[in-house]
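Morning F.,

Quick status update on the modeling queue. The single chain you submitted on Monday has been processed. Sequence for confirmation:
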Amino acid sequence: MNGARQFGQPLSLMFLILLLLGAHMIGMVSVVALSTAEAQVGKPEGLYYKSWAIIIGIENYVLAPPIPGAISDAKKVAEAFRRLGFDEVIELYDKDASSRRLHQLLDDMLPRKVGRMDRLVIFYAGHAGFMQDSDGQERGYLVPFDAQLNHATKSITVEHLKEFTRRTASKHTLLIFDAPVFGWEITVPPELSMEGRTAPESETDRRAVQVISAASKGEASVRLEKSSRFVETLLIGLSGDADLDGNGWLMASELGGYLVRQIETASNGTQRPSSLRIDGDGDTALVEGRRSAFTLGADPQTPSERQE
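Structure tokens below.
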């Protein structure tokens, strides 16, 4: 009995030590996990925690006519968003933009990975078609690499895209289509308030889903040789020309208005882009200027200037 008792005491003590060590390690893991989760809560230092650009270019279709230059255009857009400082620029060209891959992207990958304080831009260069929904309304759709032009079976419909924007957590989502994609529930973006013109960051605190399409129903996105007029104008706008008030901020609503005006003028009204806000009342910032910048002249220096 004594031997058993003497042998059992060290075992009990060892068990207690191991139990305490295990509890300590669990506590440490919990602290690490908590600190990681807490890092995703609240506002980031800038406007966004992370910026995503998904670039889709389809040139050589399996079942539809080719679009010469579509991939080259898409690569230029991808490089433009890298220059704007986007953290994740994901490029999908031809076979990588199959129906299955695009559905996985919209239904699984992006809803899982994009956070609530993130910015998401999706650019698409490819064919678009249209169909009638159950209410008899005509709705546009994107044509994946392995889908037919006039058959919506494998397509990405406007309704699918709208459902995706409702599921994704991103604060700001901007969809840019070098194609005539229509059938959205239209909400015309309001003009920026005077406060928004002098301090655009107030516009960026609210959720927004915005859409820019290169053409309207029955129109084509004009290609000049092997380059799209829409993409050429988009790249010029992103380089700073679309910042019409010159305050250093480039907002999605500014870019959309710029593209509408420039392309309608260049095409003599035969190609009419659209710029819509389909959800929320915020505005996506594409280029962030100084938060305290005034639109006219330099910052105020004296008390009277600051008061004015």
